[in-house]
């Protein structure tokens, strides 16, 4: 998808603070962090929203969550706690239509979210 911000980050044509990448996923720092740790984990495959997931993506989504847990652990938040969030469509606040798993940690996170 030539018009997708996160596809451009994955391709390296827009710079980002990459923290992890493998064959399936790329993780980078959120440009507007909402917590001391705020990274986004994105699949290399362009998938606009969770509504567009296919059964064949199950393994990919699993690897996104395992990457989230690994990054939280690497930054020392395994026990303290962290939050993982997918926003889907307008009322949830999705602004980039390439699925991304937010990983937030490093402060007390309120519940319910706003
Ligand atoms: P969402 O609102 O769930 O779609 O999340 C999109 C996230 O992408 C927001 O938290 C933005 O701060 C973040 N974002 C937007 N542009 C960039 C960028 N160029 N590099 C890193 N993060 C970005
Ligand atoms: Zn994309």
What can you tell me about this protein's structure?
This protein is α+β, with helices and mostly antiparallel strands and 114 residues long. Helices cover 21% and strands 21% of the residues. The chain is built from two helices and five strands; from the N terminus they run H-E-E-E-H-E-E. A five-stranded antiparallel beta sheet has the order 1-2-3-5-4, with helices on one face. It is globular, with a radius of gyration of 14 Å. The N and C termini lie far apart (31 Å). 22% of the residues are buried. The model has no long low-confidence stretch (mean pLDDT 97).
Topology:
Elements: H1 5-11, E1 18-21, E2 25-29, E3 37-43, H2 58-74, E4 83-85, E5 101-105
Antiparallel strand pairs: 1-2, 2-3, 3-5, 4-5
The structure holds adenosine monophosphate and zinc ion.
Number of strands: 5
Distance between the termini: 31 Å
Shape: globular
Main sheet: strands, sense, barrel: 5 strands, antiparallel
State the main characteristics:
114 residues, alpha+beta, 21% strand, binds zinc ion
Can you give me a brief rundown of this structure?
The chain has 114 residues and is an alpha+beta fold. It is built from two helices and five strands.
